[in-house]
């Protein structure tokens, strides 16, 4: 949180975090009073604030409020006078946001960030010993400290006349003297009243004196040329070149960093090279300024760009006489990936661009030209001396191609020898030909390691020693059926059938160990051609302890064997049916035998209740729809809007006549139940549903004796798309009945409680209206001809 000056002490203000808008008028007034008591004007206050990192916007706000808030007319006049004196100082906010393109350019210019870094400040230290050669001027305060036999301390300002006025001695002119010269002159003059300072007749002095600076004066420095914020700045007398450059934002995008000139007394004094300060730490470049010094930043003469594999890419300024070695040093040197043997330079000519290739040996001959763009390329991603070894050796990887390295040395020495599974008859070397095409060189591994034959290696050779298992492929065995974990298992020599069953988790509960089948691939092509047999089949009995009975105990599995475990004869998983609706004890029931029927399960459920609607009883049975059946039903649904997706789930309703079943149990109509069946006994039904192509699909109260037409009318009648002749009724038990026509008579299905009346949609006629008009006209003409024929025969 920003600190506010509640105490009248300017040194305790946290200038960097101070927000002027948060200060009250009373606090501003206290600052004004403190300034007056200390003799600090607006100019000195602004310099103090700038050097402590206060943005120019906040300084402007503070000056404005100090001008409007006053404690007395004299204080007000004092503030106005200070503002008048400060009219030469330039107030600029060097933190103003630059345009995007300018910001990007400035970030690329080497040296810019030192003057635009929020974490870096060139605030001059005022608590340091007076530097040698410091020139005393009007406004400085000299402190004369006397100790020994006599003691005294005097703080004497340098007056506008250039004198300090020492009591008992009078004025002493010190303006323009260095601090060392002023020290000698002042001590020499005051020794007239302090005799202990003299050496008379070899007497040792018993009084001593020293001159130092107290309060510092302010100086005005002008920054001109290609500065970001040129102008006149008021600074402490200890301020240096870089203090001033920092306040002005440093050189702009056109300014030079190498030839900044300091003009003193109208003559060139020194030239500042920022690169020398940044790269070499040369403190002589950052010397103390004097009042009325002018810092002139000229435009750059030669600037070039560094791109690619250089540590500090960007824009760099070159001076006359410098070469590529100097520029590479300015850019931080090459990266580890840099191709140092040749640099690519794009040079701007009068009309077009050109490319220069600069070899490393010619770096010292390079003469920078303004606008040059230097690209440091990346080294090639290839090895000068690499060979690789893979396969059945103890140590694989990449190795250096040393002089005289042969294939045998690579395998035996660097690869530490062959593994036991190495295929000795053949190995291969993948080698790049002169045109970089890939060629294969085969060799006999046995001959190489015995010294019978050897090969010299080349760069980028890739040597592969095969494993016998690689050549055979992945050797697995497979087990499936009534086993806990079906799948493939890695083959191992000596593996038995019991081993494989154990690896697969053993038999399932319903499995039988009898007639476990093993199918072995016939690998002999001649046998396959002669007999046509592609596999040999073996049968074995395996007990619960996974021991193979009889001769099969010595049977060993082979790679690619397939083992099948069957389900035990007559074994069936637990099967359940559900009885829902109007029975005494609805719920799930387990089938106790394969021939249990509808009547049996109703009896187990306690029989029907008094509210059971027997005619609506239905049996819901799970089914598995084939792909053909699914497509057939989808086509029906596309052509019949009365059919919905619910009609095509994985179950179907089986119509049953429960009344006859209960009258004749165990008869053919008393269906045998299956696992997953649901027997539904509905409550007495009192409604009829009317759906499909009617104007208002609705549920209608059942009225005994009413015909189908009554319920159609209750739904608003047929719609314009209705196919009336195909109207059908689905009853509560799942059965259906449709309308029928015989000669000129049509019979409509009977409607019962719980029924669903469905009016299907008439399919669209194909062809356009012109075709149907033509057909109608032709029919009318044919009718007229027939009528004429009948008339003529009478």
Automatic annotation (TrEMBL):
Residues 130-192 form the Polysaccharide export protein N-terminal domain. Residues 220-269, 308-350, 477-521, 577-622, 688-725 form the Soluble ligand binding domain. GO terms for molecular function: polysaccharide transmembrane transporter activity. The keyword Signal applies. InterPro entries: Poly_export, Poly_export_N, Soluble_ligand-bd. The keyword Phosphoprotein does not apply. It comes from the Bacteria. Keywords: Signal. Gene3D superfamilies: Outer membrane lipoprotein wza domain like (3.10.560.10). Pfam families: Poly_export (PF02563), SLBB (PF10531). This is Capsule polysaccharide transporter. It comes from Fulvitalea axinellae.
């Amino acid at each position: 949180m920003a600190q506010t000056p509640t105490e009248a002490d300017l040194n305790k203000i946290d200038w960097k975090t101070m927000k002027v808008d948060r200060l009250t008028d009373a606090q501003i007034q206290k600052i004004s009073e403190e300034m007056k008591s200390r003799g600090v004007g607006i100019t000195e206050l602004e310099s103090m604030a700038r050097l402590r990192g206060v943005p120019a916007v906040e300084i402007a706000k503070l000056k404005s409020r100090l001008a409007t808030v006053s404690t007395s007319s004299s204080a007000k006049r004092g503030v106005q006078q200070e503002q008048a004196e400060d009219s030469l100082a330039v107030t600029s906010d060097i933190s103003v946001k630059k345009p995007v393109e300018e910001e990007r350019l400035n970030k690329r210019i080497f040296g810019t960030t030192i003057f635009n870094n929020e974490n870096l400040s060139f605030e001059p230290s005022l608590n340091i010993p007076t530097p040698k050669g410091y020139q005393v001027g009007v406004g400085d305060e000299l402190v004369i400290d006397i100790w020994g036999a006599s003691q005294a301390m005097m703080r004497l300002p340098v007056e506008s006349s250039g004198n300090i006025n020492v009591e008992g001695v009078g004025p002493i002119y010190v303006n323009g003297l260095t601090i060392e010269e002023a020290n000698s002159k002042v001590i020499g003059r005051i020794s007239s009243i302090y005799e202990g300072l003299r050496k008379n007749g070899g007497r040792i002095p018993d009084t001593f004196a020293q001159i130092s600076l107290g309060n510092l004066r302010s100086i005005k420095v002008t920054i001109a040329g290609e500065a970001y914020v040129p102008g006149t700045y008021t600074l402490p007398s200890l301020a240096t070149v870089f203090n001033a450059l920092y306040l002005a934002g440093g050189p702009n995008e056109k300014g030079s960093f190498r030839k900044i000139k300091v003009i003193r007394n109208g003559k060139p004094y020194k030239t500042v090279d920022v690169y020398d300060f940044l790269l070499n730490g040369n403190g002589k470049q950052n010397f103390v300024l004097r009042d009325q010094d002018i810092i002139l930043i000229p435009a750059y003469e030669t600037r070039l760009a560094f791109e690619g594999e250089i540590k500090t890419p960007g824009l760099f300024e070159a001076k006359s006489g410098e070469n590529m070695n100097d520029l590479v040093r300015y850019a931080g040197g090459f990266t580890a990936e840099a191709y140092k043997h040749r640099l690519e330079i794009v040079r701007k000519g009068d009309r077009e661009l050109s490319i220069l290739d600069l070899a490393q040996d010619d770096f010292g001959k390079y003469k920078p030209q303004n606008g040059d763009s230097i690209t440091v390329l990346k080294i090639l991603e290839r090895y000068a001396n690499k060979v690789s070894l893979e396969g059945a050796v103890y140590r694989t990887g990449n190795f250096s191609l040393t002089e005289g390295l042969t294939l045998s040395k690579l395998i035996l020495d660097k690869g530490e020898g062959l593994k036991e599974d190495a295929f000795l008859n053949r190995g291969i070397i993948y080698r790049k030909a002169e045109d970089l095409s890939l060629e294969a060189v085969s060799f006999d591994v046995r001959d190489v390691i015995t010294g019978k034959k050897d090969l010299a290696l080349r760069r980028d050779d890739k040597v592969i020693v095969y494993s016998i298992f690689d050549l055979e492929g992945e050797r697995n065995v497979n087990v499936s059926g009534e086993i806990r974990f079906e799948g493939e298992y890695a083959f191992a020599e000596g593996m038995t059938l019991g081993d494989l069953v154990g690896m697969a988790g053993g038999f399932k509960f319903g499995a039988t160990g009898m007639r476990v089948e093993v199918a072995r691939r016939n690998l002999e092509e001649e046998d396959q051609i002669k007999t046509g047999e592609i596999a040999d089949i073996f049968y074995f009995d395996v007990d619960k302890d996974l021991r193979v009975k009889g001769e099969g105990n010595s049977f060993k599995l082979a790679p690619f064997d397939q083992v099948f475990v069957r389900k035990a004869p007559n074994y069936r998983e637990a099967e359940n049916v559900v009885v829902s609706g109007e029975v005494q004890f609805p719920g799930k029931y387990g089938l106790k035998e394969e021939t249990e029927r509808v009547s049996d399960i109703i009896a187990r459920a306690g029989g029907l209740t008094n509210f059971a609607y027997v005619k609506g009883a239905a049996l819901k049975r799970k089914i598995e729809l084939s792909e053909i059946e699914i497509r057939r039903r989808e086509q029906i649904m596309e052509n019949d809007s009365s059919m919905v997706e619910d009609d095509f789930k994985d179950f179907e309703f089986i119509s049953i006549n429960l009344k006859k079943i209960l009258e004749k149990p165990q008869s053919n109509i008393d269906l045998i139940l299956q696992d997953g069946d649901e027997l539904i006994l509905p409550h007495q039904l009192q409604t009829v549903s009317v759906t499909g192509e009617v104007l208002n699909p609705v549920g209608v109260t059942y009225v005994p004796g009413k015909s189908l037409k009554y319920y159609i009318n209750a739904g608003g009648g047929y719609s314009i798309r209705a196919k009336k002749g195909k109207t059908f009724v689905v009853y509560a038990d799942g059965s259906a009945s449709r309308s029928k026509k015989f000669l000129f008579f049509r019979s409509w299905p009977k409607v019962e409680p719980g029924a669903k009346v469905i009016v299907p949609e008439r399919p669209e006629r194909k062809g356009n209206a012109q075709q149907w008009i033509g057909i109608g006209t032709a029919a009318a003409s044919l009718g007229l001809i027939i009528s004429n024929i009948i008339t003529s025969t009478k």
